[in-house]
From TrEMBL:
Any one GO MF annotation of this record: metal ion binding
Source species of the chain: Dyadobacter jiangsuensis
GO CC terms: membrane
Keyword Hydrolase attached: yes
Protein name per its UniProtKB record: Polysaccharide deacetylase
C-alpha cells in the first residue's frame, strides 16, 4: 500500500465482465447468516473470510455450509489473527505456518471446508508471507484499502473510490488484490455508485469488504458497516447488471 496505489487513469479490464466482489472478515457468522434474504434478493454471491476457526461451533459450521451451498465462498483469515510479518520474523516460515495457518486450517478441514482464498489479518503481510500462502495453495490473497485515512482527528487524504485503481480487478490473473473497506460509514452511497459504474464501464470488478453488520451508523472505532449501505451497494450492482464474483473466482476469470 504505497504511493503507486493511486492513479488517475481508469484501469481497463475485460469488456462485459464488469462485476463486484464483496467479502466479509472475522467471525460474525450468525450476523452474516442473517443477511441471506438480502443476498438472495439480488442473487449476490460473496466471500466470508473466517478467523479463529478453533472456536467454530457446530451451529456456525452448519450456517457456513448452507452459505457455501448457496454459492458463497468460505475463505480463511488466520488461526490467531496475528501480524503475519511479526510471526515470520520471530519464527520464519515454519513458525508462521505452525502458528497462523495449520491449526486453523485443520479445524476448517474438519468442518468440511477447503479454503482457497486468504484475507490478511489487519492487512499485514510482506513478500515472504505471500510466498508461503501461495505455496500452501491459496489462489487469492486479499489486502485492505481504506479511502480515508485519519490521524489524531486530522484527515490525511480522502480519495473517491473511483480513483483507487487497486480496488478494481482487471482480470489479468493477479492473485494479490486489494479491497476497499466499507466499515465506519467512510464511503458514501454516491461514491460507491460511481465506483460501480466505473467497474461496469471498464469491464473490471470492484472489490469491497467489511466486518460486522450493524443496523445503525457505525460508532467510532467499531469495525462494522451499516447494513443499509450494503443494501444500497447490492441494489446499485443489480441495477447496473454487475456480475457477482467470489474472491477465488477472480484470478480464474482470466482470459
Ligand atoms: Zn480481521
Amino acid at each position: 500500500m504505497a504511493g503507486a496505489f493511486w492513479g488517475c487513469g481508469s484501469p481497463s479490464g475485460k469488456p462485459g465482465a464488469g462485476g463486484i466482489a464483496i467479502s466479509f472478515d472475522d467471525h460474525f457468522i450468525k450476523e452474516w447468516y442473517e443477511l441471506r434474504p438480502l443476498f438472495q434478493k439480488y442473487n449476490a454471491k460473496v466471500t466470508f473470510f473466517i478467523t479463529c476457526p478453533d472456536s467454530l461451533k457446530a451451529e456456525e459450521a452448519a450456517m457456513l455450509k448452507q452459505l457455501e451451498k448457496e454459492g458463497h465462498e468460505i475463505g480463511f483469515h488466520g488461526t490467531v489473527h496475528a501480524k503475519s510479518t511479526e510471526l515470520m520474523t520471530a519464527g520464519g516460515p515454519k513458525g508462521y505456518i505452525e502458528a497462523e495457518l495449520e491449526p486453523g486450517l485443520r479445524h476448517m478441514n474438519a468442518a468440511g471446508f477447503k479454503p482457497t482464498s486468504y484475507a490478511h489479518p489487519g492487512g499485514n503481510h510482506n513478500g515472504r508471507v505471500d510466498s508461503v500462502l501461495l505455496a500452501k495453495g491459496f489462489t487469492t490473497l486479499r489486502d485492505v484499502a481504506i479511502s480515508r485515512r485519519k490521524y489524531k482527528g486530522f484527515q490525511l487524504y480522502a480519495w473517491p473510490p473511483r480513483w483507487m485503481n487497486a480496488i478494481y480487478y482487471i482480470f489479468d490473473g493477479e492473485q494479490k488484490v486489494d479491497a476497499l473497506m466499507i466499515d465506519y460509514d467512510e464511503v458514501t452511497e454516491e461514491e460507491i455508485a460511481e465506483a460501480i459504474l466505473e467497474a461496469k464501464e471498464n469491464g473490471t470488478a470492484l472489490m469491497i469488504f467489511g466486518h460486522e453488520p450493524l443496523y445503525s451508523e457505525p460508532k467510532n472505532g467499531k469495525y462494522g458497516f451499516n447494513v443499509s449501505f450494503l443494501a444500497a451497494v447490492l441494489r446499485e450492482a443489480d441495477k447496473q447488471k454487475l456480475k457477482f464474483y467470489t474472491m477465488s473466482e477472480l484470478p480464474k476469470s482470466n482470459n
